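Researcher: I'd like a candidate sequence for this fold, 157 residues long. If you have to choose between options at a position, lean toward the conservative one.
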């Protein structure tokens, strides 16, 4: 990715988050969580209060997906030794779902993980979040375990 826009097609632009994206990205992630879980305690997501500050940590990359200049999705890649990396904050706005944006985000972050030489990627989600699980499986992730209401998947790179 190296700072350049990644254009996966269908009018989707995936790029690193900018300071001007923070409010919209935060809202999109919290709305996704709220849509799945109901009421969300926003204080339990402090990394979203200042994304640009939270995700420049070594190995971290937070990206946004745009469609027609509108923020449509988010995702982040974080380093996780010794396994390689982990996908977090994957979210697609309700109005943009079922248009390949989630797959474009995952594909872009997988490509970045390969570029970085990570041996594998991990991801976890709630074990009842069927759409997310289906997306990760369609992108090649395989289940490695379930515990405490979560499913854990990995992709060997």
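Model: Candidate sequence:
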């Amino acid at each position: 990715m190296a700072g350049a826009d990644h254009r996966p097609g269908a009018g989707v632009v995936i790029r690193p988050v900018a300071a001007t994206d923070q409010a919209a990205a935060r809202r999109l992630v919290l709305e996704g969580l709220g849509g799945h879980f109901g009421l969300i305690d926003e204080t339990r997501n402090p990394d979203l209060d200042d994304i640009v500050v939270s995700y420049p940590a070594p190995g971290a990359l937070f990206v946004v997906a745009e469609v027609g200049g509108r923020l449509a999705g988010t995702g982040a890649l974080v380093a996780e030794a010794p396994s390689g990396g982990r996908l977090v904050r994957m979210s697609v706005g309700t109005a943009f779902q079922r248009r390949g944006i989630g797959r474009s985000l995952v594909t872009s972050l997988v490509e970045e993980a390969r570029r970085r030489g990570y041996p594998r990627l991990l991801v976890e989600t709630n074990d009842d979040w069927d759409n997310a699980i289906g997306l990760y499986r369609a992108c090649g992730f395989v289940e490695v375990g379930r515990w405490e209401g979560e499913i854990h998947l990995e992709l060997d790179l």
